[in-house]
Design a protein that fits this description.
Distance between the termini: 26 Å
CATH class of the largest domain: Alpha Beta
Structural class: alpha/beta
Shape: globular
Number of helices: 12
Strand content: 15-25%
Radius of gyration: 22 Å
Strand order of the largest sheet: 3-2-1-4-5-6-7
Largest sheet: 7 strands, parallel
CATH topology of the largest domain: Rossmann fold
Number of domains: 2
Helix content: 25-40%
Order of helices and strands: EHEEHHEHEHHEEEHEHEHEHEEHH
Length: about 400
């Protein structure tokens, strides 16, 4: 039996389950590629920053290529902010971009010499320059770019979120980067076989020169080994899950503390809220610790246990892009979800069937009280969400 050909997966983070949204999407790629290829994962980190890899990790090797990344100088970033159209001639000053030293990258990937590289998957637009060097070295390989979402729209949405929270400097920088990425998404030439997007709506009416083919590739997640049935109790247990140094998640938690908790206090409902997430700022940690009936779980080894204990999952997001893995995770654990439109974006979830919709704190509180008082409805919503995940978004 002939040896499998090689595929390269270029990712900003180590693909792994149970981690951040980016890591989960990259894990989906790795799971797919390893069926037909010997996969090498390329990470833009230094060798001493490589995470520990277990013996059963489904890749031939994980290569650290951080030495090939050439950080932009401060004056280059400033000039590109002042003259955004300059990104069409030089991308070095693009905020968040990863410029590449081709000679260093070739030395770091010398172990691939002579191997039949047939496919290159590039995850995220800001790795384009690294990808271009790889495709020049392996011109026979089919190269695909996973955009995940419209980077420009997501950054603009995050900028508005930062502005609402009073982080004005970060908002201005993020808004400038949104304009830079908007120009690159539409005007930068590329030779990708296809582009992939997580939300079906994002595939339509997208003008770009990078590829003629734009493919809908939904986010998928593996379900828990055992789904615990909803448990009724005198105290309604609420759950929010998210990485807390990501601005939309931080804003959602702040909205819960500032607006939703007073509504719940007035409702007469007995409740308890668990906020599960790493990297909360000291200020946010203090706010959470000062809130009655709220606990912060920053280091959780078993997220399934958190869902098993929860009765209602809250997704009060007002910003972001793509599709929300936290919502899919709640569906997969068969828990009823109360969410904004942003929280179910791109999932084809029907309000009132797969989740209960809410736009503000009053509507969130009313939905929570409704679900707490109607166990049959809670089960029906949870079952419908689980069925949607199982049919469309389950990782095989």
């Amino acid at each position: 039996m002939s040896e499998k050909p090689v595929a390269l997966l270029l990712s900003p983070v180590l693909p792994e389950p149970g981690a951040s949204g980016r890591a989960l999407r990259a894990w989906g790629w790795l799971q797919e590629l390893q069926r037909d290829y010997r996969v090498y994962v390329l990470l833009p980190v230094a060798p001493d920053e490589l995470p520990e890899i277990t013996g059963d990790y489904p890749a031939e090797a994980v290569l650290a290529i951080g030495a090939a990344i050439v950080p932009a100088r401060r004056y280059e970033l400033l000039l590109t902010m002042l003259f955004p159209f300059s990104v069409l001639w030089s991308r070095r000053g693009v905020i968040g971009w990863l410029p590449c030293n081709a000679a260093v990258l070739q030395a770091l990937t010398a172990s691939l010499d002579g191997q039949p590289v047939e496919r290159i998957v590039v995850f995220r637009l800001y790795l384009h320059d690294v990808a271009r060097t790889l495709t020049a070295r392996f011109p026979q390989a089919r190269t695909e770019l996973d955009l995940d979402d419209h980077e420009s729209r997501t950054r603009l949405s995050v900028a508005s979120c930062l502005l609402r929270m009073g982080h004005y400097r970060e908002a201005i920088i993020t808004c400038a980067s949104a304009l830079q990425f908007a120009l690159l998404e539409r005007l930068m030439p590329g030779r990708y076989k296809s582009l992939c997007m997580a939300a079906e709506d994002d595939c339509h009416n997208f003008s770009t020169r990078m590829s003629a083919s734009i493919i809908y590739r939904p986010n998928t997640i593996a379900g828990p080994k055992n789904v615990v049935a909803l448990q009724q109790s005198d105290e309604t247990r609420l759950l929010f899950v998210g990485t807390l140094n990501y601005a939309p998640n931080e804003e959602a938690v702040r909205d819960i503390l500032r607006y939703l908790l007073p509504e719940l206090m007035r409702s007469g409902l007995r409740w308890h809220l668990s906020v599960v997430g790493r990297n909360a700022s000291p200020e946010l940690q203090s706010l959470l610790q000062a809130a009655a009936q709220v606990e912060l779980l920053s280091d959780v080894d078993d997220i399934a246990a958190c869902y098993a204990a929860a009765q209602i999952v809250l997704v009060p997001l007002r910003a972001g892009g793509g599709t929300k893995l936290k919502t899919l995770e709640a569906f997969a654990h068969r828990r009823p979800v109360v969410s904004t439109a942003q929280g179910v974006r791109g999932l084809r979830a029907v309000a009132g069937e797969h989740y209960l919709p809410a736009r503000d704190a009053g509507q969130f509180a009313a939905a929570i009280v409704h679900l707490a008082g109607d166990p049959a409805m809670a089960v029906r919503i949870a079952d419908a969400g689980w069925s949607l995940w199982h049919t469309r978004f389950r990782q095989l």
